[in-house]
Design brief:
Blueprint: E1 4-22, E2 28-47, E3 52-56, H1 70-78, E4 86-91, H2 102-116, H3 135-140, E5 144-148, E6 152-155, E7 162-167, H4 174-180, H5 209-215, H6 217-227, E8 235-237, E9 244-248, H7 251-264, E10 269-274
Parallel strand pairs: 3-4
Antiparallel strand pairs: 1-2, 2-4, 2-5, 5-6, 7-9, 7-10, 8-9
C-alpha cells in the first residue's frame, strides 16, 4: 500500500460546446471538444489518523474550505471514509467557476490516485458521470469529443495551440448558466444525436458565450480586445465560463499578446498555456 501520492490535476478547455437540449431526467445533452492544458492543481494524498481536506494556492477557498466540496463528495461516492483515513491537500492554481473543470479535475485526479494507491478498484469513466459531467473526460486523459451528458467519449486530437487565457472578475455557476438556456423538459432535437461521435461543420462556438456577451460589459470588452489581437486565430469562452481565451499557432505570438493584454487589463488574471503536453 502506497503511503503518499502527489498527482497533478490539469485544466481543460472546450474548443467548442453545443447544448442540444434538456432531457426529461433534468440533464442536458451536449456536444463538445475538449483539450487539456499545462495548468495544474497539485493534490497530495497521504495516510492519516483522520480524514482532513485542506487547500492553498491563489484560488483556494475563502475560509479554507468549500461548502460543497468535490473532494468530500468524491470520498462519499467511493464509500471509502470508513475504510481508510486520508490527509488530502489541494494547491489551487486553476481558477474556480471559470469553465476550466477545476473541481472535476480534482475529483478525477483523486480517483486516479486512489486507484494507483490500491485503495479503490478501477471503474470506467462513465461510472462517475453522476458525480460530475466533466469527470469522465478527465479520467479519459486524452483530447476528446464528448457527447451525451458527458459520458460518451472518443479520442480526437486537436492541433497544437497556445492560449492566452483570461479570467474576468466574475464567476459563473454551471447550474445557473444552464438555467439561462431556458430549455424546458424533453426538447432535445433527436436529429442532432448520433451513436457515432465525430466532428462536423456545426462544431464551433460555445452556446454559453453569447449569453455572457449580452449580459456583461466587462466580458464584452475583453472579447472585443482579444478578437483584435494580432495573429489570434479565434476567441472563445470555455465551458460555462467565465474564463475566455484567444488561440495562437506560435508561443511567441501568445506571449506578445499576453504582455499587451496585461498593459490594458492589469487587474485581471491572465496566463499563456498550451495543449498537447500531457496527451496526444
Amino acid at each position: 500500500m502506497q503511503d503518499k501520492k502527489i498527482i497533478f490535476a490539469p485544466a481543460k478547455l472546450n474548443i467548442f460546446l453545443k447544448v442540444l437540449g434538456k432531457r426529461n431526467d433534468g440533464y442536458h445533452e451536449i456536444r463538445s471538444g475538449i483539450t487539456f492544458l499545462n495548468l495544474f492543481d497539485q493534490i497530495t494524498i497521504q495516510h492519516n489518523h483522520k480524514t482532513i481536506i485542506t487547500y492553498s494556492g491563489p484560488f483556494s477557498p475563502s475560509g479554507g474550505f468549500y461548502n460543497n466540496c468535490i473532494i468530500e463528495r468524491t470520498l462519499d461516492f467511493l464509500k471509502i471514509k470508513e475504510k481508510v483515513k486520508l490527509k488530502i491537500h489541494i494547491c489551487k492554481n486553476i481558477p474556480v467557476q471559470g469553465g476550466l473543470g477545476s473541481a472535476s479535475s480534482n475529483a478525477a485526479s483523486l480517483i486516479i490516485a486512489l486507484e494507483e494507491m490500491k485503495l479503490i478498484n478501477h471503474n470506467t469513466p462513465d461510472h462517475y458521470v453522476s458525480l460530475g459531467a466533466d469527470i469522465p473526460c478527465f479520467l479519459f486523459k486524452k483530447d476528446c469529443l464528448v457527447a451525451g451528458i458527458g459520458e460518451k467519449l472518443v479520442h480526437f486530437s486537436f492541433p497544437k495551440y497556445f492560449f492566452l487565457l483570461v479570467k474576468p472578475k466574475f464567476n459563473n455557476s454551471t447550474k445557473d448558466m444552464y438555467k439561462k438556456l431556458r430549455f424546458t423538459d424533453t426538447i432535445v432535437d433527436q436529429n442532432l444525436i448520433s451513436e457515432k461521435i465525430e466532428i462536423n461543420e456545426n462544431d464551433t462556438g460555445n452556446d454559453f458565450h453569447k449569453i455572457i456577451l449580452n449580459e456583461s460589459v466587462e466580458f464584452r470588452k475583453i472579447i472585443d480586445y482579444l478578437e483584435n489581437v494580432e495573429y489570434s486565430i479565434f476567441v472563445r469562452m470555455t465551458g460555462s465560463g467565465s474564463c475566455c481565451y484567444a488561440v495562437f499557432e506560435k508561443k511567441e505570438y501568445a506571449l506578445k499578446a499576453l504582455t499587451l493584454f496585461k498593459s490594458k487589463f492589469s487587474d485581471l488574471w491572465s496566463i499563456v498555456c498550451e495543449n498537447n503536453t500531457i496527451n496526444n
